[in-house]
Design a protein that fits this description.
Blueprint lengths: L9 H26 L7 H20 L2 H8 L1 H26 L3 H28 L9 H15 L7 H16 L4 H14 L6 H20 L3 H16 L12 H7 L2 H4 L11 E3 L5 E3 H9 L18 E2 L1 H26 L4 H14 L3 H10 L2 H7 L7 H14 L1 H9 L2 H10 L4 H12 L2 H9 L3 H7 L6 H14 L3 H9 L4 H9 L2 H12 L5 H7 L2 H9 L6 H14 L3 H9 L3 H11 L4 H17 L9 H6 L2 H13 L2 H17 L1 H8 L2 H9 L6 H15 L13 H15 L3 H12 L6 H9 L2 H17 L6 H18 L4 H8 L4 H10 L2 H23 L14 H5 L37 H7 L7 H10 L8 H10 L2 H11 L2 H15 L6 H14 L6 H11 L10
Helix pairs in contact: 1-2, 1-4, 2-6, 3-4, 4-5, 5-6, 5-7, 7-8, 9-10, 14-15, 15-18, 17-18, 18-19, 18-21, 20-21, 21-24, 25-26, 25-27, 27-30, 30-33, 32-33, 33-36, 35-36, 36-37, 36-39, 39-41, 40-41, 40-43, 41-44, 43-44, 43-46, 44-47, 46-47, 46-49, 47-50, 49-50, 50-53, 52-53, 52-54, 53-55, ...
Amino acid sequence: MSGLDFSIGMEDVGIAVLQELWNKVAFQTMGLVSETRDMLFEKDSFLEFSRSISELNILLSSLNAQKVENALGLESTRAALTTLNQQLKKASKIIKDYKCGSRLRLLLKSHSILLQMEDVAKDIAKTISAFQLVNLDTALNLNTMTSQIINNLGSMEFRSAAATEKIASEMETSISENTKNRENAKKLLEKIAEAVGARPSASLVQNELALLKQEKEEMEAQKKQAEALQLSQLIEFLYSTEVVTRPVDEETASTHHQLYPIGSFICQLCNKMMTDPVAIHCGHSFEREAIQEHFRRGERNCPTCRQELSSLELTPNLLLRNSIEEWNERDMDLKFQAAVPRIKSSEHSQQDKALEDLQLFLERPRYVTKAAEEGLVKKLVEILKDDRVNAGAALKCLYYLAKYNDDQKEAIVIAGGIRRIVKHICKGGNECHALGVLMELSEKESLAEKMGNTKDCIPLVVSLLHINNPDVSQKASKVLQNLSSNVHFVVKMAEAGHFQPFVARFNDAAGETRTLMAAALVNIQLKENNIDDLREQQFIHNLIQMISSSSPASKSACLKCIKKLVAHHKIVERLLEDAVTIPHLLGLISFNKFDLHLKQGAAEILAKLIGDSEQFEQPKYQGLQELQSKHNVSLLLEIMTSAEDQTKIQFLHLLVELSSKSEIARDLIRTDNDAIAQLFSSLYSDHPEVRRWVMKLIYCISEGHPDGVPLPTSPEKETAITNLATILINSPDTEERSAAAGIISQLPQNDSSIDEILRKSDALKAIYGVICSTDDEISGNIGSSDQGTSLLENALAALLRYTEPSKPDLQRQLGKLELYPSLVRVLTRGSSLAKRRTATALAQLSLSTSRSFSDETIMAPQTKPSMPFFLKHVTSMWCCPASSHNFSSCSVHGDACSPRDTFCLVKADAVRPLVMTLSDTESGVAEAALMALETMLIDHSTRSQSTAVIVDSQGVAAILHVLDKGSVSAKTKALDLFQKILLHTKISVPVMQRFERILIQFLSDDDLKKKAALVLRQMGIIPEQSSYF
């Protein structure tokens, strides 16, 4: 059921087609310049026109279609190029007509031809202006050339010479009066010969006669009766000179008028054959519209006899109209009879002439019958193979044959017409006429079947639906509509990207057909623009109802189809809006005991629906509310605990999604002791995916909860914690280790037995290894994976248990490891979450030491006292042990800040990285860094020194950045820190002015105005007594 994908690369194809059209236009200009050479009359005007077109050719060669398309857009550029190409062709045709053919006719029509050229020149100028080439980023000389071309063509005038106009006037008078005066005719011939640069010889007259007769035949073939009459009159004029003798077998004037009763059939006002002749008061007849327009202009004279009319009443000339109609019928019959052998001819020119006539004849049903009798269908289909013949006219003929004769529809299909029409469209042929034939053929069910099975037919018609031609798109739509009763055909349409018939057919279909269609949809490539059709409410509802079918095949096809569709958010919304979606899926889970694939499929879909839902807690989606009921959560837990591994994984995934969105579901799982015990026992599973999803669920129900991880009762509790530590330490799987670290970080905080288990395990060493190895990867410019980033973040979260000031035993264990350099480097290279957790860890370590320092008095650096008493009781928290005989004095704490005895942000070189971290205003990073820096200012005795270190590390500028860009909580902490810094350092006036501007803005913020006012008072900006306090 696969089809051609016509949407692939359409943009590139459009540009290529556009460039080809651009090249055609450039080639057309070259040809037009060549055509304007050797003009017979008015050479100067044509020379000026030739120069402008030559400059246009240069301009087109200097640009390219891509550049113009980027400025105007594909469709606008194509439309403008098409128009310009047509105008250039029109000019070329006018010039060719002006140069070739009879010079007598040329003289007679010179005035009208020149006016046509003038109009074409102005039209070309307008089209070039539409390109807006002067607005493109091009060289100045090209812009100047563009403007000059537009001006020259727009103002160009083509005027006949006075002598030429006089001769033309005399010729018009002579042929209209139809005089037989030989002398006058010869004198006029001499003037004509002089005008065209020839001698009034028999040779001139014979050549002119030959040309005029040839042109007359062409006009007759084209049904241009007025032109044919004029040519006949010129022929009569030449014979009247008696320079040459009329052949005996040639028509006489009377015979001519019998064959061409044009004199009475042609309206003298509009110069066209009359269709609604009316007689005026004097008796002369005219076309109704023409004489009415004549009277509207205020004229009251007869255009023929000039007699003033006493009445403007019009009388239908029924006799004349019947004569015209009879003559037309006879004329058409003769031409149809002449066209039949020509259409069967092997000469392409003859076939083209015949096709031009036939497409007009076949508009009348009576000629369709005649064409059917002549068996023309086969030949017309054959003509579609030949690019040298007018295939558009052949298609139009086939269209009328199919429209007016059902038997001819069969004949077209038997002759291979469908396949030939498809190929014709593929090659860029006339889409409108081709679709017209297909539309008529598809009306017949048996032929529609053959059409739908024709290779590439349906994808091709689908590709024409959105073409920028309403007639084409409407016909394409009608063809597809006629084919839509066949299920296989609507599937083909969907494969080609047209889903409306598929959706409509699915909604009307019975159960077995829906199963077939749903199975087909699974294998169809979907794009975003298809989803609007597929999210149709009735379609989604009918698809969901298939879940309750008694047929396993129907259920399976439905689930596979929905799994494909839920990849698109709009479909998820529609599924959630339908009240039966979740109950049906839960029903499939509850009552299906044998087919595990169906259970797994239902669970996978539910997980996707929950994961993509944006308003889970709101009552908008009734099904989601039912899903988090105690009964349904217990059902999912029961299946998860008792199922085999693959099903267990799917239901763990579902429970993770449900827990991440529903606090109710989280609490129900946490309080189910049996389920918790089963979860922790599943950590011993041999299936790594089971272990990973179990840990994800445990972490999900624990994260952010005040009681942390819900642990089983002892002794399973101790076993569970030990097992988590073992996974963190020994698992080769990064994702497993990350999940274990995350759960450890969520273990209950106030449980000393947990601390003891962790202290006795090698969990801290594993955390140390993660941080250091990740640091090594970053230092070696090895791009870490998402899993590696997650492992580092969770390891840092677990580390916070060891840096907690209330847990001295764990801090002591941490102090034995050389961890602080890697921690400091995470501040500059880690993710935002890793930075926040690292800053929090450093803050907790610094807080423990700073509180100890603040309780004692640090002695002057000049003395070298014995170890202070308070330090004997401070845990050894210096993360990088060093020799007590080889350390430098701390600029804040002096010798008392020994690496062996205490942790210090200054000695750890962490101050500047913390200050740099303040530029990260995401995820609470700045708040954590500010908290760490503020621990340096707890000890009043060293606050001046600590302030100096922060200021020297560009801390003031960083605080200013937080106040400008940070969150409200970060701004609050920044104000607290800045207020303390102000007490111990002097800040430059420009910087203070920047602080002042920002703080004054804070006065209008309810959350910040009080703190901002306190700082402004401290800066001396607002008085001591203020309404802000």
